[in-house]
Amino acid sequence: MDFTIRAANVDDCKDIARMITELAEYEKVIDHVKVTQRDLEQDGFSKNPFFHGIIVEVPEQHKTKEGHTKVGYALYFFSYSSWKGRSVFMEDLYVMPEFRGKGIGKALMSKVAQLGMAAGCQQLNFTVLDWNKSSLDFYFSQGCTDTTAEMGYHYMTCALSRPLQVRVCVAMEQREQSRLSSGFHAHLDFYSSCTRSPQHHTSPLQVRAVTPGCCKGRAELRRLSVRTRMQQLHRALPARPLLLDMALPRTA
Amino acid sequence: MITELAVFEKMSDQVKISHEELERDGFCQNPFFECLIAEVSDEHRSKCGYTVVGYALYFYTYSTWKGRTVYLEDLYVMPEFRGRGIGKGLMCKVAKVGTEKKCVRLQLAVLDWNSPARDFYAAKGAQDLTDSEGWHFIRFDGPSLDNLVKEAPKD
Fold first, then answer.
1. CB-CB: which of A91, A110, A154 is closest to B112?
2. What's the pTM value of the predicted model, to 2 decimals?
3. Which residue has the higher pLDDT, B18 or A220?
4. Which of A12, A55, A56, B70 could form a disulfide with B103 if both were Cys (CB 3.0 to 4.6 A apart)?
5. Helix (H) or strand (E) holding B19
């Protein structure tokens, strides 16, 4: 089958996001995917990209029944081995099921290897799930080494998530106190250093009074669960202006 | 210290780069890695006279599921300076640098027999994805990498 491989551009992110989801479904971890098309656009196509991509395209006459001509991708970035030097890590390699068995996967992987070598890399690394026998067979047929099985390397991860920080200034003048039971006014000075893809937390609301103060300004309350939690909170608020720092669950 | 770490990991013959590659690759316009150094004052220098007694070498990677990630390639403290919180300080600093770049994960690899390191990382909340999810590290290098490159499609 005729196909072409080229460098991905920002306009490919919609199809890359689609295929990332398909790959995650295949790997049985679809609920793990938090990255969006917008994340890919910002992280892959800015001044200092976190990754590079290559895309496989087929001619119009071979498009899928849904009309896709972009049928595979590989996503990679440069890494470093303190023993061997420059390396390339292939984060994803994916070909849509109906286009497999035609040499596209091998062509993608070879292209990543070629791009890596052109950049002075001495190794191509990636990870594969131990139950993914068809992938393991494919990679072993190409002469790879399983450094987990042969050398005992274990792959470790630590989450770096930070709680969403919301600064709430609640001004309660005397005349407002009577309205506490039915509603409240909150002036939000919303600040956050969370990532663009917040993870879901279920930690309880924590409230810590910082300093007495007055209203900082008004910000639009967009998230219903923030409003709901504020409604729960107002019953406990003392009758004076307070600046509160609250650690909220990321779904707030 | 890279050599000392490789000796500890029983793979000193695997080290192929020298300080020249480190200078070129870590301090160019688009560096392949960043590095933090742990230094002690002169009166606490090592028996051999070193004041640089530990390091953490890391770089930025990407997860198509979770997003920006920082990868800790090496974490090392000279034996006579261990047990004083230097390793933890280095790792936490890498995590802090990572969060400033909006990374959501810190990843690393550890050898299965290296129980002190595994216990250290587990105490910091690390999850072993090889044990829990079955991930294996795969590598192409040397002749296998050359063969792969030969089969790349022409542009």
1. A154
2. 0.74
3. B18
4. B70
5. helix B19-26
